[in-house]
Amino acid sequence: MKKWIKLVQLLIAVALLAFLIVHYHVTIRSIDLATSDLLWLIPCLIISIVLVPILAGYRWQTMLHALDSTYDALKLIRINFQSIFWGVFLPSSDGFALIRAYLLMRRIDRRTAIGSVIMEKFFGVLCLFLIALAASFFIQELSWIWLLRIMLICAIASLIAMVALIRKQSATEREDRNLLQRIVTQIRKLAGLLATADRKFLGQGIVLIVFVQLLSILNIHFLFFLLGHPLPLIQHLCFVPVIQTISLIPLTTSGFGIREGAFVFFYQRLDILPADLIAISILNFLIMTGIPALIGGVLSIHSNLRKVDVLVGGIQ
After folding, report:
1. What is the mean pLDDT of residues 148-160?
2. pTM
3. Helix, coil or strand: residue 177
């Protein structure tokens, strides 16, 4: 059954990409490469390979500290890389979060491992909405920006209210609960974790979350420069968090199709060709996910080879 679901998600991704390519007549020639400056790839690679992995590792470590648990930051960075490799095949652009929790569960307490990832994701989405909302007040030239502000305010209020309300309800331990009940149970656990988390480390973790998000937005800012579109950073601070949140929808493999459609929806209103927007979206995925996934694949293979060596050595 799971294989069929993955196949359907892959087919949806292919269908959405095909629709965008055909509908907007996207070809290699239609992408404006005349004004591109490949030097902009250098900061993108630094962000992808060095800055984000390091900050993400310490971000995760800080969240674990908030739950009164410790784990080596370098090992967490390694787990991050490996989880990105395996998460590429999962739905949504952040499917590797499940792999991260699973890999850490094998090393520390299950509740703490899952809880640290849940808290990280909750505050991550909340911070994305807050960044987009704050940036929207500096954008006046778009007539529909007020509607986006209202939607962001409603989303922020819903996240906060959801945790606050469910926290007051008593948790059920029924084994036959359906999907909705499981989601509610996880939110209850999140509320419980927030109540017991160390405020100092939690605050530090949120700061690191914001830094990682700003770096991912800055990466897209550089990619726009790469294709000759020097938009103000404030535009990306408003649009990219919304696009990243939309791409979390677990409908297609790695968020393909959904993410590209969202880029076209928001940035086409700034008179940028859809072909360039789709190219930027795919380039961003290859740099921020594809390269770390490749590193994670190498680390996974190396880890398995070491296990084989240990096993063979033990037999001899």
Report:
1. 93
2. 0.87
3. coil
Q: How far apart are CA 129 and CA 245, in angstroms?
A: 8
**In sequence order, which residues have a C-beta less than 8 Å from that of residue 278 and are 6 or more positions away?**
20, 21, 24, 26, 260, 263, 264
Q: Is the dihedral of CA 214, 134, 252, 259 positive or negative?
A: negative
293 confidence band (pLDDT: 50, 70, 90): very high
Q: Please, which pLDDT band fits residue 110 given cuts at 50, 70 and 90?
A: confident
Q: What tokens appear for 232 in the block?
A: 């103000």
C-beta separation of 256 from 16 below 8 A: yes
Q: 217: closest CA among 52, 23, 13?
A: 52
- pLDDT tens for each residue of 9-34: 778 888 888 988 888 877 776 666 65
Per-residue pLDDT, 206:
94
- Rounded average pLDDT over 195-211: 90
Rg (Cα) of the chain, in Å, rounded?
21
Q: Which residue has the tokens 């480390």?
A: 201
Give the HSE-up count for residue 167: Cα atoms under 13 Å, Cβ half-sphere: 13
Compute CA distances 256 → 16, 244, 259, 265, 295, whole Å. 8, 12, 6, 15, 21
Amino acid at site 142: L
- 135 φψ region: left (φ > 0), alpha (ψ -120 to 50), beta (else): alpha
Alpha carbon distance 212, 282 (integer Å): 20
